[in-house]
Write a structure and sequence with these properties.
Length: 60
């Protein structure tokens, strides 16, 4: 697991999340630990190194 810091797309607070580097590509929803809004997380690892991280609101 790797800790990654980012900004919530809703409340703009800096938060951290543990990412599982054993899965190369992952896409899931997780609630912000500050404002509790759902965030779409998209993560890509290559050779256990983070290549891409996106945290998006799920509102259209």
């Amino acid at each position: 697991m790797k800790e990654h810091y980012f900004t919530c797309p809703y409340c703009w607070q800096a938060i951290s999340m543990l990412l599982d580097h054993s899965v190369n590509i992952n896409d899931y929803i997780e609630d912000c630990e500050v404002c509790c809004n759902p965030i779409e997380i998209k993560v890509t690892f290559f050779n256990m190194e983070l290549q891409d991280f996106q945290a998006n609101s799920i509102e259209q």
